[in-house]
C-alpha cells in the first residue's frame, strides 16, 4: 500500500505492465487495487492535515501543501465541485440587442460599416 504502482508491482515480483494487465483481467485484483488506492489517498489526506495543524503551511516542509492539495483535487472518488451559477442570458441578450441597435444607428449616420 505505497500508492506507487511501480513500487507495489516490484514488491509483488511483477512488472507495471503485468500489474495493469492483471487488474484488467481479474475483478478481485481490480477491487483490491481500488482499495489500496483509496487507502493511499486517505494517508495523503491525513499527512496533509497533520502538517497543516502542527506546523502551518511552510515552504520546503515534508509535504508541499500546494502540491498535496492539487493531488487531493484529483482524487477519483471526490465529488465534483459545485456547479457555477447559471448565466443570466436575458440581460445579456438585451445588452447585445442594444449594442447592435447603436452600431446600426452609427452606421446610418456615416460612421462604421453596418454590423453583420
TrEMBL record:
Ranges where the record places region Disordered: 74-96
Superkingdom to which the source organism belongs: Bacteria
The protein, known as: Terminase
